[in-house]
Specification:
Elements lengths: L1 E6 L5 H12 L3 E5 L5 H11 L8 H25 L3 E5 L2 H11 L4 H12 L6 E6 L2 H15 L5 H5 L1 H17 L4 E5 L4 H17 L1
Parallel strand pairs: 1-3, 1-4, 2-3, 4-5
Helix pairs in contact: 1-9, 2-3, 3-5, 4-5, 4-8
Bound molecules: thymidine-5'-phosphate.
Length: about 210
Protein backbone atom coordinates (compact mmCIF):
# COMPACT_ATOMS: atom_id res chain seq x y z
CA UNK A 1 0.00 0.00 0.00
CA UNK A 2 1.42 3.32 -1.11
CA UNK A 3 0.12 6.47 0.58
CA UNK A 4 1.10 10.03 -0.36
CA UNK A 5 0.60 12.97 1.98
CA UNK A 6 0.10 16.27 0.18
CA UNK A 7 -0.67 19.87 1.05
CA UNK A 8 0.52 23.41 0.64
CA UNK A 9 3.47 24.87 2.53
CA UNK A 10 2.47 25.33 6.18
CA UNK A 11 -0.39 22.80 6.06
CA UNK A 12 0.97 20.85 9.04
CA UNK A 13 2.09 17.94 6.90
CA UNK A 14 5.33 17.18 8.76
CA UNK A 15 3.59 16.86 12.12
CA UNK A 16 0.85 14.72 10.59
CA UNK A 17 3.48 12.43 9.08
CA UNK A 18 5.27 12.00 12.41
CA UNK A 19 1.99 11.21 14.14
CA UNK A 20 1.03 8.75 11.42
CA UNK A 21 4.42 7.06 11.76
CA UNK A 22 3.85 6.58 15.49
CA UNK A 23 0.41 5.10 14.82
CA UNK A 24 1.52 2.75 12.04
CA UNK A 25 4.69 1.57 13.81
CA UNK A 26 7.70 -0.30 12.46
CA UNK A 27 5.92 -1.95 9.55
CA UNK A 28 5.56 1.36 7.74
CA UNK A 29 8.25 3.20 5.82
CA UNK A 30 8.08 7.00 6.05
CA UNK A 31 9.89 8.91 3.36
CA UNK A 32 9.72 12.24 1.53
CA UNK A 33 10.21 14.12 -1.71
CA UNK A 34 12.25 15.72 -2.96
CA UNK A 35 14.65 13.52 -1.04
CA UNK A 36 14.28 9.96 0.16
CA UNK A 37 17.78 8.88 -0.95
CA UNK A 38 21.24 10.45 -0.58
CA UNK A 39 21.12 11.37 -4.25
CA UNK A 40 17.61 12.78 -3.85
CA UNK A 41 18.73 14.83 -0.85
CA UNK A 42 21.49 16.32 -2.97
CA UNK A 43 18.90 17.30 -5.58
CA UNK A 44 16.67 18.71 -2.83
CA UNK A 45 19.56 20.97 -1.88
CA UNK A 46 19.82 22.17 -5.47
CA UNK A 47 16.09 22.89 -5.65
CA UNK A 48 15.46 24.47 -2.27
CA UNK A 49 18.72 26.23 -1.38
CA UNK A 50 17.84 29.59 0.11
CA UNK A 51 18.62 32.43 -2.18
CA UNK A 52 20.24 29.78 -4.38
CA UNK A 53 19.25 28.82 -7.87
CA UNK A 54 16.71 30.17 -10.32
CA UNK A 55 15.51 27.12 -12.27
CA UNK A 56 13.41 27.17 -15.39
CA UNK A 57 10.17 25.22 -14.75
CA UNK A 58 11.26 22.45 -17.14
CA UNK A 59 14.63 22.13 -15.40
CA UNK A 60 12.87 22.01 -12.02
CA UNK A 61 10.56 19.26 -13.28
CA UNK A 62 13.47 17.16 -14.53
CA UNK A 63 15.40 17.51 -11.27
CA UNK A 64 12.33 16.42 -9.31
CA UNK A 65 11.85 13.54 -11.74
CA UNK A 66 15.49 12.45 -11.36
CA UNK A 67 15.20 12.42 -7.56
CA UNK A 68 11.92 10.49 -7.87
CA UNK A 69 13.34 7.88 -10.26
CA UNK A 70 16.09 7.13 -7.75
CA UNK A 71 13.66 7.13 -4.83
CA UNK A 72 11.11 4.82 -6.46
CA UNK A 73 13.67 2.32 -7.76
CA UNK A 74 15.87 2.16 -4.66
CA UNK A 75 13.46 2.75 -1.78
CA UNK A 76 9.74 2.75 -2.55
CA UNK A 77 9.40 -0.27 -4.86
CA UNK A 78 11.61 -2.53 -2.70
CA UNK A 79 9.60 -1.60 0.40
CA UNK A 80 6.29 -2.25 -1.36
CA UNK A 81 7.63 -5.57 -2.65
CA UNK A 82 8.51 -6.50 0.95
CA UNK A 83 4.89 -5.88 1.91
CA UNK A 84 5.46 -2.65 3.81
CA UNK A 85 3.12 0.32 3.89
CA UNK A 86 4.95 3.29 2.36
CA UNK A 87 3.95 6.82 3.33
CA UNK A 88 5.56 9.54 1.25
CA UNK A 89 5.57 13.20 2.26
CA UNK A 90 4.77 14.73 -1.17
CA UNK A 91 4.79 12.90 -4.50
CA UNK A 92 3.29 13.45 -7.95
CA UNK A 93 0.40 15.50 -6.53
CA UNK A 94 2.94 18.15 -5.55
CA UNK A 95 4.44 18.11 -9.04
CA UNK A 96 1.01 18.65 -10.59
CA UNK A 97 0.28 21.42 -8.08
CA UNK A 98 3.63 23.27 -8.01
CA UNK A 99 5.15 22.69 -11.45
CA UNK A 100 1.73 22.44 -13.15
CA UNK A 101 -0.72 24.87 -11.56
CA UNK A 102 2.03 26.94 -9.94
CA UNK A 103 4.63 27.22 -12.67
CA UNK A 104 2.43 26.63 -15.69
CA UNK A 105 3.69 23.32 -17.11
CA UNK A 106 1.14 21.15 -18.92
CA UNK A 107 -0.43 18.27 -17.01
CA UNK A 108 0.28 15.85 -19.90
CA UNK A 109 3.98 16.77 -19.83
CA UNK A 110 4.16 16.16 -16.06
CA UNK A 111 2.27 12.86 -16.28
CA UNK A 112 4.47 11.63 -19.13
CA UNK A 113 7.69 12.42 -17.26
CA UNK A 114 6.32 11.01 -14.00
CA UNK A 115 5.42 7.73 -15.71
CA UNK A 116 8.80 7.57 -17.39
CA UNK A 117 10.64 8.18 -14.07
CA UNK A 118 8.65 5.72 -11.98
CA UNK A 119 7.46 3.02 -14.36
CA UNK A 120 3.96 4.37 -13.76
CA UNK A 121 3.85 4.19 -9.95
CA UNK A 122 0.89 6.17 -8.56
CA UNK A 123 -0.25 6.22 -4.92
CA UNK A 124 -3.10 3.96 -3.82
CA UNK A 125 -4.25 6.80 -1.57
CA UNK A 126 -3.37 10.50 -1.53
CA UNK A 127 -4.28 12.41 1.62
CA UNK A 128 -4.56 16.15 0.99
CA UNK A 129 -4.20 18.54 3.91
CA UNK A 130 -6.28 21.44 2.70
CA UNK A 131 -5.33 24.78 4.25
CA UNK A 132 -6.15 28.38 3.50
CA UNK A 133 -2.83 29.94 2.43
CA UNK A 134 -3.46 32.92 4.72
CA UNK A 135 -3.66 30.57 7.74
CA UNK A 136 -0.61 28.61 6.56
CA UNK A 137 1.30 31.86 6.16
CA UNK A 138 0.47 32.89 9.73
CA UNK A 139 1.66 29.47 10.97
CA UNK A 140 4.89 29.80 9.01
CA UNK A 141 5.54 33.26 10.39
CA UNK A 142 4.87 32.08 13.95
CA UNK A 143 7.36 29.25 13.45
CA UNK A 144 9.88 31.62 11.94
CA UNK A 145 9.60 33.85 15.02
CA UNK A 146 9.81 30.87 17.41
CA UNK A 147 12.76 29.17 15.73
CA UNK A 148 14.54 32.10 14.17
CA UNK A 149 14.78 30.03 10.99
CA UNK A 150 12.60 27.89 8.78
CA UNK A 151 10.24 28.55 5.91
CA UNK A 152 10.82 31.38 3.55
CA UNK A 153 8.93 29.68 0.73
CA UNK A 154 5.80 31.76 1.14
CA UNK A 155 7.67 34.93 0.47
CA UNK A 156 9.60 33.23 -2.33
CA UNK A 157 6.53 31.82 -4.10
CA UNK A 158 3.88 34.36 -3.08
CA UNK A 159 0.33 34.03 -1.80
CA UNK A 160 -1.23 33.90 -5.29
CA UNK A 161 1.00 30.93 -6.18
CA UNK A 162 -0.08 29.14 -2.98
CA UNK A 163 -3.74 29.69 -3.91
CA UNK A 164 -3.14 28.00 -7.28
CA UNK A 165 -1.41 25.11 -5.51
CA UNK A 166 -4.37 24.69 -3.16
CA UNK A 167 -6.86 24.75 -6.05
CA UNK A 168 -4.86 22.09 -7.88
CA UNK A 169 -4.84 19.68 -4.90
CA UNK A 170 -8.62 20.08 -4.56
CA UNK A 171 -9.12 19.56 -8.31
CA UNK A 172 -6.94 16.43 -8.28
CA UNK A 173 -9.00 15.04 -5.39
CA UNK A 174 -12.29 15.86 -7.11
CA UNK A 175 -11.11 14.18 -10.34
CA UNK A 176 -10.32 10.86 -8.59
CA UNK A 177 -12.27 10.80 -5.30
CA UNK A 178 -11.76 7.05 -4.75
CA UNK A 179 -7.98 7.58 -4.53
CA UNK A 180 -8.01 10.82 -2.49
CA UNK A 181 -9.06 12.01 0.96
CA UNK A 182 -9.24 15.73 1.71
CA UNK A 183 -8.76 16.81 5.31
CA UNK A 184 -9.60 20.27 6.57
CA UNK A 185 -6.25 21.49 7.91
CA UNK A 186 -7.56 24.91 8.98
CA UNK A 187 -8.21 23.37 12.40
CA UNK A 188 -6.04 22.70 15.45
CA UNK A 189 -3.10 20.44 14.58
CA UNK A 190 -4.17 17.63 16.93
CA UNK A 191 -7.55 17.29 15.19
CA UNK A 192 -5.87 17.24 11.78
CA UNK A 193 -3.37 14.58 12.86
CA UNK A 194 -6.11 12.38 14.32
CA UNK A 195 -8.10 12.60 11.08
CA UNK A 196 -5.08 11.73 8.91
CA UNK A 197 -4.40 8.63 11.01
CA UNK A 198 -8.08 7.60 10.94
CA UNK A 199 -8.34 7.97 7.16
CA UNK A 200 -5.17 5.96 6.51
CA UNK A 201 -6.06 3.20 9.00
CA UNK A 202 -9.55 3.02 7.47
CA UNK A 203 -8.08 2.69 3.98
CA UNK A 204 -5.63 -0.02 5.10
CA UNK A 205 -8.42 -1.93 6.81
CA UNK A 206 -10.71 -1.68 3.77
P1 LIG B 1 8.56 20.33 2.08
O1 LIG B 1 9.17 21.33 2.95
O2 LIG B 1 7.11 20.08 2.34
O3 LIG B 1 9.35 19.07 1.97
O4 LIG B 1 8.52 21.01 0.64
C1 LIG B 1 9.42 20.93 -0.35
C2 LIG B 1 9.12 21.96 -1.43
O5 LIG B 1 9.30 21.33 -2.69
C3 LIG B 1 7.71 22.52 -1.40
O6 LIG B 1 7.75 23.93 -1.52
C4 LIG B 1 7.07 21.95 -2.63
C5 LIG B 1 8.22 21.64 -3.53
N1 LIG B 1 7.94 20.52 -4.44
C6 LIG B 1 7.64 20.81 -5.76
O7 LIG B 1 7.63 21.96 -6.16
N2 LIG B 1 7.36 19.76 -6.61
C7 LIG B 1 7.37 18.44 -6.21
O8 LIG B 1 7.11 17.55 -7.03
C8 LIG B 1 7.71 18.18 -4.84
C9 LIG B 1 7.75 16.75 -4.38
C10 LIG B 1 7.98 19.23 -3.99
Amino acid sequence: MFVALEGGDGSGKSGALAHLGAVLGEGALLTREPGGTDEGQAIRGLLLARGGHDWEPQAELLLIAAARAQHVARVIRPALAAGRVVVCDRYVGSTLAYQGAGRGLAVEEIVMIHNHSTGGLWPDLTVVLDVDPAIALARGLARLRAEGSGEDRFEALGLEFQHRVRRSFLDQAAAAPQRHAVIDANRPITAVQADVAAVVLGFLAG
